[in-house]
């Protein structure tokens, strides 16, 4: 399974990413409430239907704030340049064996790669 970051979704909606569609058709995509929130904060064409599609996807279990802070410390992510949402995505993926995080954010991808959590459909 692949947790897809908001930037990948935006590229998909704008037609700049064709790699996500096959993964969706294979039921290989998870989402996270914070990813949906990030997307909802943007300007979406067909807003209601787009958000409904995202809501209907399987959701990865959210990590608690305490779990996210523990991961920050154990992986020494302070000063890494990732944000709070990024940290929560990493934590959620780490808690679910076999799941990978697909992002094009360089700092988040670097952290995910270091933790063995980075993914891309070509590698799935």
UniProtKB/TrEMBL annotation:
Keyword annotations: Hydrolase
E.C. number: 3.1.-.-
An annotated Gene Ontology molecular function: hydrolase activity
Database matches in InterPro entries: PIN-like_dom_sf (IPR029060)
Record's protein name: Probable ribonuclease VapC32
Organism in which the protein naturally occurs: Bordetella ansorpii
